[in-house]
């Protein structure tokens, strides 16, 4: 059984839809053949490729960045919104809503150059552990999705991330862990300022937002970065609905997939009530829009990569 | 001699610098080895990969678009700046300067969706001929550069275009003619608006500029789209200087190349005086910044692809 495609996916309608779609677009003499250059697949990141509870992982990175900043400037601890972040006040962060919360997060990365940021991010990923899952972030990604990305690439697809999270934080992680190089990561971004004197050249991160890559902005950023409509898209929230609809509205064979977190035992069960990234309209209208809903509980036989530490390691800490 | 690398490049310092650089970064046990994922090469388009005289080719596309629009709305012929464009008033267009002239060009593409634009652009490239060179645009590109792009890719490089021209017009041309897919084209862009009703999904082009990809914006857009500093960059004007300096300022082996148009017989001879894209500072400070100047006349044994029509076909029309 080890050479069965997508081993962490259970037999069932979601796996069948994927295998059937890939077979159709790769059959050279078939009516639905798509040449490799047009086999573009876009994946949301938070909640689609890895865990986003109780907060998107970017916030845990920001908490640690703020600790470092507050060690130098203790007044930060009393200044909102940083106070809420430093106190890990999750309810307050949820109440901010997705864009406002992320904009605060991005602002804490301002004033350094792009290379410094990349180095700090890589160091953090190497050392940090997810506070609820109690494991390194590289083991908070979904094993079935890692297999799906590799399976698509083995079938001539080019895989992209299209995320509301910060583009540079994802890039510090995606190549090693998802096999997705930086130039295939699209995300939210801040403006950068080029600075050059006779003896220095720098690209500085500003606090001003360049693009918040969520909802209707996702298709526009796909057009900007990729210049080609995806034939497959995978998301998990209303933030992905525009990307899914844009994908499905193209001519020829299309597949739109929506992960539904219905697995409280192995991961988390949530949809409408998650204020940082609710799933309402995409779930209610999935049938109407031709979106395939992937229930985590029924579709996946494991969720997280096997850490070799037995079953307990794949359950969230309480 | 047909299997000599870069056959359209003459023996000399420019070709030697390229071959030497590629040998260094691809020698696995050498001190300058660069793994393939980091072999990023960025090329300007107008004046670097193809002819930009007497105007960047985008303007010839715009002239034809405006003719189609003026056929429906004759009042356009009397309204500036469209009047100057419709009259092919090159001096007036030059006087506008690069960004203003391009912004007018982009505005003439507003109001259609992204798919419609791509179709119009592809049709135009298939039918139109360059007014001075009197040949299809696919034969206005520089044969030595097409060879260089292919040579770099054969050595594990990923090749990107980073142009001040409109990103979508370049994409309609680059895959077939340069072997560069849409997702590896960076250029100036307008804002796009996602529109969806129950039964339609569209991405509409607006007239508002998203990014004018020239000068200091080029490194910022490289960071946004690629997320990795190039190790090789090739340009031909001051609009490329920031990209060249950003490339050369990275750690490890770097190559920055600047095409100098000094070949009035086979192409055009110009630098400082070309108001739409002058070459002044990059030429004056090439030595100081470590930029290798590539004189067209001495470096290339042919300029344009051989059309099979004899020598006359490779000379500009008067």
Break the fold down into its secondary structure elements and pairings.
The structure is a homodimer of 318-residue chains.
Chain A: H1 13-26, E1 40-43, H2 57-72, H3 82-86, H4 90-96, H5 98-107, H6 114-127, H7 143-154, E2 158-166, H8 167-178, E3 185-196, E4 201-211, H9 217-225, E5 232-235, H10 241-248, E6 255-260, H11 281-284, H12 286-289, E7 292-295, H13 296-299
Parallel strand pairs in A: 1-2, 1-5, 2-3, 5-6, 6-7
Antiparallel strand pairs in A: 3-4
Helix pairs in contact in A: 6-8, 9-10
Could you list some keywords that capture this structure?
homodimer; 318 residues; alpha/beta; Rossmann fold; seven-stranded mixed β-sheet; 13 helices; 7 strands; 37% helix; globular
| Overall pLDDT score of chain A | 93
Work out the count of structural domains of chain A: 1
The major sheet of chain A is characterized as: 7 strands, mixed
Rg calculated over all Cα atoms of chain A? 20 Å
Known CATH architecture of chain A: 3-Layer(aba) Sandwich
Please report the number of helical segments of chain A.
13
Q: Could you say what the CATH topology of chain A is called?
A: Rossmann fold
Give the low-confidence spans of chain A: 309-315
Q: What is the β-strand count of chain A?
A: 7
Largest two-chain interface: A-B, 41 and 42 residues
Distance between the termini of chain A: 34 Å
Structural class, from secondary structure content of chain A?
alpha/beta
Order of helices and strands of chain A: HEHHHHHHEHEEHEHEHHEH
Largest sheet of chain A, order of strands side by side? 4-3-2-1-5-6-7
CATH homologous superfamily descriptor of chain A: HAD superfamily/HAD-like
Strand residue percentage of chain A: 15-25%
Described by its quaternary structure, the protein is homodimer
Q: Helicity range of the residues of chain A?
A: 25-40%
Task: Give the overall shape of chain A, derived from the CA principal axes.
Answer: globular
CATH top level assignment of chain A: Alpha Beta
Organism (chains A, B): Microvirga tunisiensis
GO molecular function (chains A, B): hydrolase activity
Keywords (chains A, B): Hydrolase
Protein name (chains A, B): Haloacid dehalogenase-like hydrolase
